[in-house]
Amino acid sequence: MNIQDFLAFDPETDTDHDMPVDLRSLDLVSGYDSHLMCPICHCPLVEPARLQCDHVFCQKCLRSAITTFRSADTDDFPCPSCRTPTSRISTNVPRLLINMCDEIQVRCPFLAEGCQEILPRGHIQSHVDRYCGYRLMPCPEESCDKKTRKKDLQPEERCLHGYYQCSRCEQDVMEQDYEDHEKELCPSLEATCVDCGTTVPQRELQGHVDQCPEVLSPCMASKYGCTTKIRRGELATHEQSCPLVSIAPYFEAQNTRLDSLELKTRHLQQRNEIFEDGLANIRSTLLESARTGGRLGHSGESGQQNQADDIDDSTGMSPISSSNPTTYLLSLHESLREEVSQMTHALTDLDARASMTIMNECLRIKEDMAHTNAAVNSVRMQVQWLMNPRLHNSTRTGNMRGASTAGNDTTRTQFTSTSAPGPSQSAGPSLGPLRPRRPSDSGREGTKL
Amino acid sequence: MGSQKRIAKELHELVESPPEGITVKLADEDNLYEWRVFMDGPEGSPYQNGKFQIKLVLPTEYPFKPPTVSFATKIYHPNVTNDDKGSMCLGMLRPDEWKPSSKIGAVLQFARQLLAEPMPDDAIEGRIAEQYKNDRKHYDEVAREWTRKHAS
After folding, report:
1. Where are stretches of biased composition, namely Low complexity (chain A) (predicted)?
2. Phi, psi (degrees; rounded to nearest 5) at A336
3. Which of A207, A372, B28, B73 is packed most tightly, with the most Cβ within 10 A?
């Protein structure tokens, strides 16, 4: 809203409470965050409003600030915190802020009348409106201008401000105070001191008892064991001679020392507990690893198993064997290392053996291959030898037949010339009667081992 | 009415936890608007070991109008008038620079800071400012002399 609207609208004055509580003059019981303080009135914010620069003030304070700072012909004014020119004011501040301000604990404004109530600031108005019995109300008698506490007004609604004369002290007492006067305040009321027998006004009795020299009171050193209980008047002489009184300062010093030592012991106990917990943790982890280690380790290694059993036993016992887990761990480590070295040995052994067998096999296969090669070569030689005369023959017959069977012959010639180099081709079905002996059979027979 | 509560609160705070070298009380117990402030000269300045009395007057419009600060003890300083009034020239106390959110404690601390470090460019006593700028040694001497004579 703009400034004119803001100045016209005032929620604090326009309330329907018959007795509005001034929230700024309340007696605060709890502390509050300094950010909740209005920079102008230095109280927790009441009905806050926010400026464009985000500074927050009570609406009432802001209104006074605007009327003081605004020059007549402008429609803006400087922010009371940062002097930023401002023309718009928002009464819509975060709920959080209002709640925090309303939560501050305050005393009822009628403390002087006897209301001991302490409640959140947000509830104080309704407390005063409805519940506070100590609130001062105008006297129901119209001619009387005095005020009466709300709770005294209750039953008959009449003026309590008439004066009565006290039947004993002949003093004029207002009716509303009469009860208190009769019970406590009247000077004619007397009480007798039980110890010295003097009579004093009742309201002074307590003070008298505190000082009466006849009252039996315990020795100053009673808490250190002095059982004497004598009249206050003689107490001083007793205390001068009482050995416990003279030793009392020493006792006190010892007490404070004891207290501090106890405190220290408690600290140490706590620390000790923490350490013991830690130790137990370590032990349990060790035990676990020992179990898994035992499973891994060979069952033949009986020594190791015995050790594992030892650990099992020791955990049930007191922390005397606390070094056992460490030694056990070390031995376990040692045995594992041995095992590993054994395995390395075995591995190299196996490696050597395997390479030997491989080499043997290889040699044999190589020999075989040499044999086969030789056989194949001899076969080739034989085949060539066998083929040679036939090649001769075919060229001769081809020339003799001449052109009459030229087409037929060419195919045959072609075939024979191509079939010559490889023995595998010679097994072709079209060769028919010319099929040679298969030399490879015999060759293979020979080379087989 | 609102101003009284705030002033009472600020006074209470300053009496309960006074800033270094500053003590505050009311000139007259019944008048919240006039304060007596005792300020020790800051260490390292020529005003050291001096005890200066300051009169602080709050307007009824406080905190919307600035308080006025004047030295009751004579002091040789470029920012304090060298007359019976002893008015102090503080930037933050000028009506157009005053902010309602400023606190009296801050004003007093600022004033003490001004004793330690005068602002010759913002001076009210031109002659002393000139001397402070050009003949620092002599200025220190005179200020020390005045402190001894008037403020101890």
Report:
1. 416-434
2. -60, -40
3. B73
Whether B63 and chain A come into contact, CB under 8 Å, resolves to: yes
Domain span including residue B113: 2-150
A258-286 exposure pattern, b = at least 16 Cβ within 10 A, e = fewer? eeeeeeeeeeeeeeeeeeeeeeeeebeeb
Name the class of domain A3-131: alpha beta
* pLDDT, chain A, mean: 78
A232 touches chain B (CB under 8 A): no
B89 is catalytic: yes
**What average pLDDT does the segment A354-365 reach?**
94
Please state whether beta strands A163-165 and A172-174 pair in parallel, antiparallel, or not at all (unpaired).
Answer: antiparallel
Q: How far apart are CA A280 and CA A343, in angstroms?
A: 35
- Tokens 């060790």 belong to which residue? A286
Nearest to B64 among A60, A68, A83 (CB): A68
The verdict on A70 touching B (C-beta cutoff 8 Å) is no
Parse chain A into domains and list their residue ranges. Answer: 3-131, 216-254
Q: What is the residue-wise DSSP string for A183-243?
A: III-TT-EEE-TTT--EEEGGGHHHHHHH-TTSEEE-TTGGGT---EEEHHHHHHHHHH-H
Average pLDDT over residues A166-188: 72
Burial of B93-111, coded b for 16+ CB within 10 Å and e otherwise, reads: beeeebbbbbbbbebbbbb
Residue B53, helix vs strand vs coil? strand
Residue B100 at interface with chain A, using a CB cutoff of 8 Å: yes
The count of C-alpha atoms lying within 13 angstroms of the C-alpha of A279, restricted to the half-sphere facing its C-beta, is: 15
State ipTM.
0.74
Which of A20, A16, A14, A11 lies closest to A124 in space, CA to CA? A20
A83 touches B: beta carbon within 8 Å: yes
Contact residues on chain A for B9, CB-CB shorter than 8 A: 42-43
More confident call, B27 vs A190: B27
- Tally of domains in chain B: 1
Range of A135-144, A189-198, A269-278, B94-103 with top mean pLDDT: A269-278
Q: Which of A152, A118, A159, A158 is nearest to A135 (CA)?
A: A152
Chain B residues lying within 8 Å of A43, measured CB to CB: 5-6, 9
Q: Is A40's CB within 8 Å of B99's CB?
A: no
CATH number at residue B99: 3.10.110.10
Chain A partners within 8 Å of B59 (Cβ): none
- pLDDT, residue A71, reads 72
Catalytic position from the list B14, B89, B123, B143: B89
Residue A282 is given by DSSP the state: H
Within 8 A by CB and 6+ apart from B135, the residues are none
